[in-house]
Design goal:
Its main location: membrane. GO terms for molecular function: amino acid:sodium symporter activity. Belongs to the alanine or glycine:cation symporter (AGCS) (TC 2.A.25) family. The protein has about 475 residues and is an all-alpha fold. About 75% of the residues lie in helices and about 0% in strands. Helix 7 runs antiparallel to helix 14. About 5% of the residues have low confidence.
């Protein structure tokens, strides 16, 4: 006799996942106008413009110094360095938070809604996002503090307050507020929802998925940044390599379609063809949104992890941080996109993780489990990484005494997100919170760009 009958768990998941009558409409009514502001053209221009300003002001140094960043990543910290985790662990923690459903489900959503051309705009925002991520980490280390527990803390809220002065502390407070809330969307609810959706296709009840994820997450985040970094450093490199190899197998099996795939991406990037709305605006916005969702350059999340790095030089850590954007979007997201396009699955009408699974099954019969496994592992690490980000934002707002209550609420939302009722509502709310989080950070990056340029100019790369 089954102690927990699958049918009982399934029915309970469905009941929990049902929004009360009218609630879904109410959420959309509140969210849509805010989303129109947070992710309208002014924000898109601010994101792109900040990346361009930093890249040009740095003389395209971030692109030219990618090999240098790799060398610094492999170098051990010096004895005089301060911080809780190694530079490698800081990068893995930040990538744990970015390599998630954005690389699998997010790319699929971009292609389903914006057509193949959206991939081009993902690439473009990622290229300039390399400079943005560099600047964020540099400022995070340069303006970091030590909290009452002895931990190095930093990120936009700190470089706003310490870099721009007390008169700008309100802006740092807004970032921390939006960052705390955004974590529950982009880093928690969306992740557990997509995992439960993928596992539901093979008969696993959503509630069971949520409970198991919640237990795993609690077991790690209760140990703080060191345990999160240890888990990320063990999981992220191996799973990323495995996923890329799996993508390459399918791409190589459809190698004759690759030139046509790139041609479709470039041709559709400047037309409304294949976009759900039939407009170029939809193509660009979907590419930008999903690109930022995948690599988080400009959101201000990654520098929170890099502020804890065991390093004595902001520029060096910045060159390590920028590798995350390069690997995340220009490599892993591109692999997912090519699988979806070369197999022709993007014309199936599916979206999200369902589309990615369909693409893998189409490219190599029975390989859809790779997507499911990737979603589970990547989403778990994303929830861990974002748990740390949101925790730091919560600490900034309410002090260290709020850490334990935050962790308990965070785990509860993992379970709730797994049984959420509507993919569209979940993603739309996450997008809104992302935009609100990005705005204070981008303003600070522009105002502190002189500091970024000065520290970078004075740094002697050749001595390393």
């Amino acid at each position: 006799m089954d102690v927990f009958p699958a049918s009982l768990l399934t029915n309970l998941s469905l009941q929990l996942g049902q929004f009360p009558s009218g609630l879904e409409d109410a959420v959309e009514a509140i969210n849509n106008p805010i989303n129109g502001f947070a992710w309208g053209w002014p924000t898109v221009i601010l994101i792109a413009g900040t990346g361009i300003l930093l890249m040009v002001g740095l003389g395209f140094m971030p692109l030219l110094r990618i090999p240098y960043g790799v060398r610094m990543l492999l170098r051990n910290p010096t004895s005089s360095s301060e911080g809780e985790i190694s530079p490698f662990q800081a990068l893995m923690t930040s990538m744990a938070a970015t390599i998630g459903t954005g690389n699998i489900a997010g790319v699929a959503v971009a292609i389903a809604m914006g057509g193949p051309g959206a991939v081009f705009w993902m690439w473009l925002i990622a290229i300039f996002g390399i400079a943005t991520k560099y600047a964020e980490a540099l400022l995070a280390v340069h303006f970091r503090e030590v909290d009452p527990l002895g931990n190095h803390v930093g990120g936009p809220m700190y470089y706003i307050r310490n870099g721009l002065g007390p008169n700008w502390a309100w802006l740092g407070g807004f970032f921390a507020l939006f960052g705390m809330l955004a974590g529950f969307g982009i880093g928690n609810g969306v992740q557990s929802f997509e995992v439960s959706s993928a596992l539901a296709t093979i008969g696993i009840p959503r509630l069971l998925t949520g409970v198991v994820l919640g237990v795993l997450v609690f077991g790690v985040i209760i140990g703080g940044i060191k345990r999160i970094a240890q888990a990320a450093s063990a999981i992220v490199p191996l799973m990323s390599l495995f996923y890329v190899i799996a993508c390459l197998v399918i791409i190589l099996s459809n190698i004759s379609e690759v030139p046509a795939a790139f041609s479709t991406i470039f041709s559709n990037a400047f037309t409304g063809e294949a976009a759900a709305s039939g407009t170029l605006t939809q193509v660009i916005l979907m590419g930008f949104k999903r690109g930022i969702f995948s690599n988080e350059a400009g959101l201000g999340s990654a520098p929170i992890a890099h502020a804890a790095a065991n390093t004595n030089d902001p520029v060096r850590q910045g060159t390590i941080a920028m590798l995350g954007t390069f690997i995340d979007t220009l490599i892993i997201c591109t692999m997912t996109a090519l699988v979806i396009i070369t197999t022709g699955a993007y014309q199936s009408g599916e979206s999200g993780s369902d589309l990615s699974i369909a693409a893998f099954n189409s490219g190599l019969a029975g390989s859809g489990w790779v997507v499911t496994a990737g979603l589970v592992v990547f989403a778990l690490t994303t929830v861990l990484g974002w748990g740390f980000y949101s925790e730091r934002c919560t600490e900034y707002l309410f002090g260290v005494q709020a850490i334990l209550p935050f962790r308990l609420v965070w785990v509860a939302v993992v379970v709730i997100g797994a049984v959420a009722g509507n993919r569209g509502v979940v993603w739309d709310v996450a997008d809104t919170l992302n935009g609100l989080m990005a705005i204070p950070n981008l303003i600070a990056l522009v105002l502190l760009s002189g500091t970024v340029f000065r520290l970078s100019k004075n740094y002697r790369f050749e001595e390393d």
